[in-house]
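Standup notes
- DV: blocked on the single-chain target, sequence here:
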Amino acid sequence: MEKTDFSNITACGENCTGCKKKIDGSCKGCIESDGQCEEWAGSGGCPIHKCTRENGVPFCGLCRKFPCEWLVNKVVWRPDVVGELTALANLYRQETL
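- DV (later): unblocked, structure below
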């Protein structure tokens, strides 16, 4: 079984590998730009990225405060963000411990 490359997983649990926006150059990538991606340019950077860095985790599912209402209210484009991040965190723990 191939292990997941967690170096391409963003703070909100997206995987940048094969991302259309990144491939076409319209996004530098959350990880590479340290949260300064185009979609958050007008607000000083991605608040989710900033939050994970402040809490010392690579993505939200690993945060001791997860799941938090703040995250659910921010990541409105993914209705099951808590379930997805929980599964990702479980996979991370399986593959890295």
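- Follow-up: The mean pLDDT is 89.
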